[in-house]
Amino acid sequence: MKSDSRRQGVMDFLMEAGTASVEDLAARFGVSKMTVHRDLDELEESGFLRKVRGGASIQPSGLFESDFRYRQKQAVGEKQRLAAAAVAMIEPGQTVIIDDGSTAGGIAADLADLRPLTVISNNLAVIQDLAGVGGITLIALGGQYSKKFHGFFGLLAEETLKSLRADVAFLSSSAIHGSSAFHQDQEVVQTKRLMMAAAGRKYLLVDHGKFGRTALHFLTDLTAFDAVFTGSELGQPVRDELEATGVSLTIVDGKE
After folding, report:
1. pLDDT digits (tens, 9 = 90+) for 78-117
2. Does the global pTM surpass 0.85?
3. Alpha-carbon distance 77 to 103, whole Å?
4. What CATH number does the domain located at 3-59 have?
5. Which of 57, 135, 160, 184 has a CA that sits 20 to 30 A from residue 40's CA?
6. What residues does 55 pair with on adjacent strands?
7. Exposure of 134 by Cβ count < 10 A (0-12 exposed, 13-18 middle, 19+ buried)?
């Protein structure tokens, strides 16, 4: 197995297990402990995991939870419900912005019935899903690719967003503390803010597990969104507190 494929395999395994010992990884991938240590050193340097005594871990930390592969596997059912509900905010012929978030990115799978549409995104998963789809005019934001966030960021993406205007934007955030949204990466925050500025209507899609958490950088107050979509798993006390501050909550029921 080539080193890149093996390291991807290590990350995939850690996404499921949370932690693993060097011995287990060496046996799993049929390599020496020395090779495993080299793999873990490189992955740690890239910010994907942290080495611990005798192995590696990706929990618990907002830094490691920000990895796109980790986020894709969290609250999958709830995220699908949120994306399906949010699509009702779109009408054929509109221009839609979708950010790098795994929750907002889930909207792409539900856009076929709303064609024609123009979709603007820096989310590589969205770009790959919609590339070549009939009736979808796709504007892929350029910039520097981030493996961690599986999207494009930086000056090129930011300058492009400043020159565009959309009907609606769908965003995600990694943490909701009080009535504010936060994110751990300042460059991602800047891109999300420009997406909000470029759109007439703005919606935030966050699963219930994001509430009561915080991250390093303030993104925006939740009142900046026309609606915040979340699952019915969110406790009633939290709902009441948010609505008391003027946040427009859209609760998506999980019942069939």
Report:
1. 888 999 999 999 999 999 999 998 888 889 988 988 999 9
2. no
3. 10
4. 1.10.10.10
5. 184
6. 21, 52
7. exposed
